[in-house]
Amino acid sequence: MDKHYYKLIEDFTQKNISSEDLADLMLWVDQSRENQQTFREVVKIYEAADSFFDAPLKQQQSWAKIQQRTNNQEPEEFSSVKTRSFNRWMLIAAAIIVIFSVSITYFQLQNQKTKTATVFHEIYNPKGQKRLVTMPDGSNIYLNGDSRIKYLESYDKGKRIVYLEGEAFFDVQHRPGQPFVVYSGKVATSVLGTSFNVNAYKDADKVKITVKTGKVGVVFSQGKTKHVTYLLPNEQLSVLNNGVSIRKANVDADEIDSWRIYKIVFYDQLLSEIMRVIEREYDVDITFKNQALKHIKLTTKFDKCSVIQLMDMIAQLSNSKYSIYGKKITIY
Q: Could you tell me how far CA 208 lies from the centroid of its own chain?
C-alpha cells in the first residue's frame, strides 16, 4: 500500500485532513475491498488508542468540527476528480463520520461504566520464573520474570485490552471485529489474531515490539501527535519511552522470544543491560564495582545453565571478574 494513504488515514483520524485530501482518501477507499479493509484496520487501531490516550469529549468536539467543515465544502474544489462524483465521496465521508460518532458515544458510555465499577484482574510473575496465562478468549500470554499484566473483568465482552509491565509473548486467538490491544507505557499494540513479543520493563529506556506471525499495528505518541506503524513477521519496533525516537529493524523473532525456553540471546548489548536480564532470569542482585564495565558491549547466546556457569562465561568474554555471595553478585 502507498504510504501516502496511510498518512491520509492518519490525518483523518487526527482530525487534521484538508478538503482535497479527504476527497482523495474517500476515492481510494471506494476503489477496492482491500482498501476498505485497510482503512477499517487503521481506524480500529486509532479508536483503541484514542480510548486510552484521549478524553472522549474532546474527540467528539473535534469530529464535529470535521463534519461541519465537510458539510461546508463546495463541489468546484474537486473538478479535477473524474472517476467519482462529489455526492459519491460526500456520502462515504458522512457515513464514516456517523460510524465514528457511534464509536465515540460507545467509548463515553464505557468510560462512565468503568468509573462506577472498574474491576481488574492482575497477575504478577516474580523474578526467576516463567508463567503461562490463558485468557478467557483462549489467547495465551507467556510472562517473563518480574512481569505483570492487568485486564478488566469485562475483557471478553468487548475490546480485549491488556496492560503490560515487563515482558510477555502473546499468542492471540483470532476474533473478527474484536481487536486485542496491549498497552505498555505510551505504546499501544493492536492485533486481531497473531503472535508477538513485547518488552516494556520500567528500568528500560524503550519499549520493543517484535512480530512472530501475522501483522501488528503499533500506535505511539510523539508530543500531542499519535502515529501508527505496521510490523510483519521478524520485524521489531523500538520506541523510546519519551516518544521522541523510534527504530524499526529486521530480527529473528525465534531468538527474541527464546526466553520462553530458557535461552538467552544478546546482540551488541551493553553489559549493564545484560546484567538486568540476568537479575530477572535468576532472581539475583548484581552491582558493578568497576563502573567502566557497564559500557562493554557483547553479542552472545546462552542455553539454560546455572548462574555460576553463566557468570563464568560472561567474565571471560568481558575480561572481568566477579564474586557471588548468596543472591548478591559483584562485578569488578
A: 8
What is the C-alpha to C-alpha distance for residues 266 and 17, in angstroms, rounded to an integer?
A: 43
Angstrom distance (rounded) from CA 310 to CA 322: 11
Instruction: Give the angle 314-144-285 at the CA atoms, nearest 5°.
Output: 45
Contact 209, 235 (CB under 8 A): no
Half-sphere exposure of 115 (CA within 13 A, CB side): 6
| Strand partners for 322 | 331
Pairing of strands 180-184, 264-270: unpaired
Q: How confident is the model at residue 332 (pLDDT cuts 50, 70, 90)?
A: very high
CA 271 to each of CA 127, 275, 297, 320, 331: distance values in angstroms, whole numbers, following the listed order? 19, 6, 6, 11, 10
Identity at 241, one-letter amino acid code = N
- Which of 293, 302, 272 lies closest to 204, judged by CA? 272
The phi-psi region of residue 243 (left if phi > 0; otherwise alpha if psi is between -120 and 50; otherwise beta) is left
The C-alpha atoms of residue 54 and residue 59 are separated, in whole angstroms, by 7
pLDDT at 152: 87
Residue with cell string 478538503:
19
Which residues are CB-contacts of 187 (< 8 A; sequence separation ≥ 6)? 200, 207, 209, 218, 219, 220, 239
Please tell me the distance from the alpha carbon of residue 8 to that of residue 172, in angstroms, as a whole number.
Answer: 29
- One-letter identity of residue 90: M
Contact indicator for 93, 71 with CB cutoff of 8 Å: no
Is the overall model pTM greater than 0.90, yes or no?
A: no
Which of 143, 158, 128, 248 is CA-nearest to residue 200?
143
Q: Is residue 324 over pLDDT 50?
A: yes
Residue range 78-92: mean pLDDT, rounded: 44
Question: CA 160, CA 104: separation in Å to the nearest integer?
Answer: 17
| pLDDT computed for residue 328 by the predictor | 95
